[in-house]
Design a protein that fits this description.
With 357 residues, this protein is an all-alpha fold. It has one domain (32-353). It has 16 helices and no strands. Helix 8 (139-152) crosses helix 9 and helix 13 packs across helix 16. Residues 1-17 have low confidence and may be disordered.
Length: 357
């Protein structure tokens, strides 16, 4: 019903992982790495990230030499284990996304050479994460929808709807596990700083659920205030977003989402083991809490991949567990070496050689 979309069709203002203006630009003009990197918006966001890092280093009075000493002593094999755990999430994410695409009636042709094979979907995911690490405003989400349109000749707005559904799953799963790990770690007496993390997470979940509920029950009202030329786009987006979920596949979606976030926590656990410092005796629930808090902060579209914001905040969160600032910075930087800088380097290589970009 909503699967055909004319090339170059205008897109509308939708509650999605990236702003509508950015989605329009990517959908119509593609994604140019060089143009994005030299745009004033990107340069300002990197400048802001740098300012946040400098402010944090001065405010926390960090001993750079001591922090470097901690990092040099990290066990490389345990760091590699942490990286392997992190990259094992991509097949799970790709499998979950394919389930959402199927449920949303996006035509998928099976086979190893298919545009929707698991290797292909992992490549789209990796390229979109790379884009999110080098440009602000979660533009990688729109880029991923564009890749499906370009390679699979499917509706941009339908693909975008499944990405919205995926983000909804991630936010609910992340927030649920954040609450559970926080309760196990702190009990009923949460440190004051954690209230900001929980408040931000709750706000995001409520906003996304409100958007989903609005599409479900207020669709006629939404279309009434929308320009007529945007109705087709919105109809496809709405159909895909709502259709992505069904009782039949919901248990599998929940299982895959839970596995992804458990692996995210395990990644940080290996980083802490790699440092092997006596000041890092932190239980697994606490480690999962810290890892999920850092993932939550990447949702902020202020800087690319939460650069600066994540590093500063996680260092502070680690102090809740008695970790010194120098050691906390070492943990944070080594963790970001895996889940940010490895994507910047690896994603750039994939971007250069990919036929699907």
């Amino acid at each position: 019903m909503f699967m055909d979309e004319t090339e170059g069709q205008l897109t509308g203002d939708v509650d999605a992982p990236v702003g509508s203006a950015d989605a329009v630009e990517v959908e119509r003009g593609g994604f140019s790495l060089w143009q994005r990197l030299r745009s004033p918006r990107t340069l300002i966001s990197f400048g802001l990230a740098f300012a946040i890092v400098v402010f944090a280093f001065r405010g926390l009075n960090i001993d750079v030499a001591q922090t470097w000493q901690y990092m040099r002593g990290a066990n490389p094999w345990l760091m590699l284990m942490g990286m392997a755990v992190f990259y094992s999430t991509f097949p799970l994410r790709a499998l979950r996304w394919r389930m959402l695409l199927r449920n949303a009636d996006v035509p998928i042709h099976e086979g190893r050479q298919s545009w929707a094979s698991l290797p292909a979907l992992m490549e789209y995911l990796y390229l979109s994460w790379f884009a999110n690490c080098i440009v602000p405003a979660k533009l990688g989400d729109a880029y991923r929808a564009y890749l499906l349109k370009h390679n699979g000749k499917v509706s941009f707005s339908s693909a975008f709807g499944t990405i919205f559904a995926e983000r909804l799953l991630d936010m609910i799963g992340l927030f649920a596990m954040l609450l559970i790990s926080g309760w196990i770690t702190f009990g009923a007496h949460m440190p004051d700083g954690t209230q900001i993390v929980f408040g931000f997470g709750a706000l995001l979940v409520v906003a996304i659920l409100a958007g989903l509920a609005g599409m479900r029950w207020l669709s006629p009202l939404i279309r009434r205030f929308m320009p007529a030329r945007l109705h087709d786009f919105y109809a496809r987006f709405e159909y895909a977003a709502l259709r992505s979920f069904s009782p039949a596949i919901l248990p599998r979606l929940i299982l895959l989402t839970g596995a992804v976030w458990m692996l995210e926590g395990t990644r940080l656990y290996f980083v802490i083991l790699a440092l092997g410092h006596e000041g890092l005796h932190i239980g697994l629930p606490a480690v999962i809490f810290v890892a999920l808090a850092s993932s939550l902060l990447t949702a902020l579209p202020i800087t690319p991949g939460g650069l600066g914001v994540v590093e500063s905040t996680i260092t502070v969160v680690l102090t809740f567990f008695g970790v010194g600032t120098g050691l906390g910075v070492a943990v944070t930087l080594l963790d970001r070496l895996i889940n940010f800088w490895s994507i910047v380097v690896g994603g750039f290589i994939v971007y250069l050689v990919s036929r699907r970009k």
